[in-house]
């Protein structure tokens, strides 16, 4: 006998006992508004129902049954990858001696309830397993959502990097031709500027190649290495060619951490690029630093730019959101800070900003060490 359901919001409990009156009694004890009960009077019937219903969150399993006892049912469930994670509570009239308890746990039980049942204890234990079931469900959903976001991010990165490669190759070719011009060779200033430009182009080309390589790899294949963050930030600053009126400084010595270098570089490059692009002061100042917080290192990028209104400090990290500062100072896609947020949250950290309108902003982000 059974009651089948496909409702994911309810907590489905399978009751297994060879005596009908025990099933009725147990259902009455556990009955609640958000619960659905499936009942089986034998081990074989229980196995059939479990395989047909993916929403079972808990099995209340009688030990003493003819043909197939509770220990055998539990053993078969734990041997099947599809059913091995379902919680099982043994309901038994057997003396709760050490030998039987150990056998039950070896076969996959997570708890025991002795007959005759104590109503309050039975309800309390099932309530705990119900909460655990929904916590696990939310955790699995969060993991699935994270995987979807990561996949979308990687596809976006691939498209952008792929589309940038062709015009960049053309620009590099033109620079190399210009470098061979006699007028350039005769001027030491022009030669120096040309070398800086070709160096920046080469660095950008390497970054695009790295992004393309990254998007072709799975999460497990991505390179994790010891990264000298101080040198990484110095190279990033050098490649951005800030205008002469903007000074960028590193506060103290940044650490060496084990992580994916490309992802961390993307975060710093995004924050530094924005700090340079939107700075509206005659003398722009940008500071980069951080603090060791144990499991995470808390980095910051601080500027004396236009600042951000308090109402916008959370909104700027949402996809395609553009605040007034970005509109006034130049076009913004509203994508960069959202990608930054995804990269930081992928590490288990968080990103936030402290800002005073007209005085500047300080962006903070946590990166796992």
UniProtKB/TrEMBL annotation:
InterPro entries: CheY-like_superfamily (IPR011006), HATPase_C_sf (IPR036890), HATPase_dom (IPR003594), His_kinase_dom (IPR005467), HisK_dim/P_dom (IPR003661), HisK_dim/P_sf (IPR036097), Sig_transdc_His_kin-like_C (IPR004358), Sig_transdc_resp-reg_receiver (IPR001789). The keyword Iron does not apply. It catalyses: ATP + protein L-histidine = ADP + protein N-phospho-L-histidine. Residues 159-369 form the Histidine kinase domain. PROSITE patterns: HIS_KIN, RESPONSE_REGULATORY. Keywords: Kinase, Phosphoprotein, Transferase. Transmembrane segments: none annotated. Its EC number is 2.7.13.3. Gene3D superfamilies: 1.10.287.130, 3.40.50.2300, Histidine kinase-like ATPase, C-terminal domain. SUPFAM superfamilies: ATPase domain of HSP90 chaperone/DNA topoisomerase II/histidine kinase, CheY-like, Homodimeric domain of signal transducing histidine kinase. Residues 12-130 form the Response regulatory domain. GO terms for molecular function: kinase activity. It is an enzyme of class 2 (transferase). Pfam families: HATPase_c, HisKA, Response_reg. This is histidine kinase. It comes from Chitinophaga defluvii.
């Amino acid at each position: 006998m059974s009651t089948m359901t496909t409702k994911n919001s309810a907590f489905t409990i399978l009751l297994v006992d060879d005596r009908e009156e025990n099933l009725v009694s147990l259902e009455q004890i556990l009955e609640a508004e958000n619960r659905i009960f499936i009942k089986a009077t034998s081990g074989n019937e229980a196995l059939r129902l479990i395989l047909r219903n993916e929403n079972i969150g808990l099995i209340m399993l009688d030990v003493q049954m003819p043909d197939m006892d509770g220990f055998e049912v539990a053993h078969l469930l734990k041997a099947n990858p599809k059913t091995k994670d379902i919680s099982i509570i043994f309901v038994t009239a057997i003396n709760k001696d050490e030998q039987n308890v150990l056998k039950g746990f070896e076969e996959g039980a997570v708890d025991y309830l002795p007959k005759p049942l104590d109503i309050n204890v039975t309800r309390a234990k099932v309530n705990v397993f119900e909460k655990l079931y929904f916590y696990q469900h939310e955790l699995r959903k969060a993991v699935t959502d994270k995987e979807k976001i990561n996949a979308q991010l990687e596809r976006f990165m691939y498209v952008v990097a792929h589309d940038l490669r062709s015009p960049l190759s053309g620009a590099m070719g033109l620079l190399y031709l210009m470098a061979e011009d006699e007028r350039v060779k005769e001027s030491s200033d022009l030669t120096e500027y040309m070398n800086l430009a070709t160096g920046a182009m080469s660095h950008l080309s390497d970054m695009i190649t790295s992004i393309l390589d990254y998007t072709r790899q799975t999460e497990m294949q991505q390179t994790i290495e010891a990264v000298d963050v101080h040198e990484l930030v110095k190279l990033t600053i050098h490649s951005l060619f800030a205008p002469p009126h903007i000074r960028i400084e590193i506060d103290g010595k940044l650490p060496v951490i084990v992580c994916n270098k490309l992802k961390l570089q993307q975060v710093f490059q995004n924050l530094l690029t924005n700090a340079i692009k939107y700075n509206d002061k005659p003398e722009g100042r940008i500071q980069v630093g951080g603090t060791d917080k144990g499991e995470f290192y808390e980095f910051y990028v601080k500027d004396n730019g236009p600042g951000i209104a308090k109402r916008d400090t959370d909104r700027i990290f949402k996809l395609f959101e553009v605040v007034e500062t970005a509109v006034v100072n130049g076009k913004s896609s509203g994508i960069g800070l959202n990608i930054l947020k995804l990269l930081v949250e992928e590490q288990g950290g968080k990103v936030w900003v402290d800002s005073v309108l007209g005085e500047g902003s300080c962006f903070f982000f946590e990166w796992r060490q």
